Amino acid sequence: MTAAMFGPQAAYFAELFPPQRRFAGFAFARELGSLLSGGPAPFVATALVAAYGTWWPVACYAMFLSACTVVAIWIGPETYQENIAADASEQAELPTAIPARA
């Protein structure tokens, strides 16, 4: 089960960011998602069971989070034809820094 989740996730996140920011972008996206949805999940689940007295609101909450994931992947960029190893900074002309005082 873990490989089915983390394998595609690693490949997807690696394709989203250029090589210069791949590690930081991957870490930020992954940890932000964990912070926003995974962190409060036990508290939300406990509150839902306490409020309704049954498990089905927790299942609806999990389905809502899954739907959010589907929407995020749907609107994310498609990188099928892109070279993920290319360094964009090599292709673009970077401005030369000029010191304020010589």
Structure in words:
- The protein has 102 residues and is mainly α.
- It has 5 helices and no strands.
Can you lay out the helices and strands and say which pair or pack?
Layout: H1 2-16, H2 22-38, H3 41-52, H4 56-75, H5 88-91
Helix pairs in contact: 1-2, 3-4
Précis, in short:
Helix 1 packs across helix 2 and helix 3 crosses helix 4.
**What sequence of helices (H) and strands (E) makes up the elements?**
HHHHH
Separation of the first and last Cα atoms: 61 Å
Globally, the shape reads elongated
- Rounded mean pLDDT is 81
- Can you tell me the residue ranges where pLDDT is under 50 for at least 5 consecutive residues? none
**% residues in beta strands:** under 5%
Structural class: mainly alpha
The DSSP helix count reads 5
Sheet with the most strands?
none
Q: Rg to the nearest angstrom?
A: 20 Å
Main features:
mainly alpha
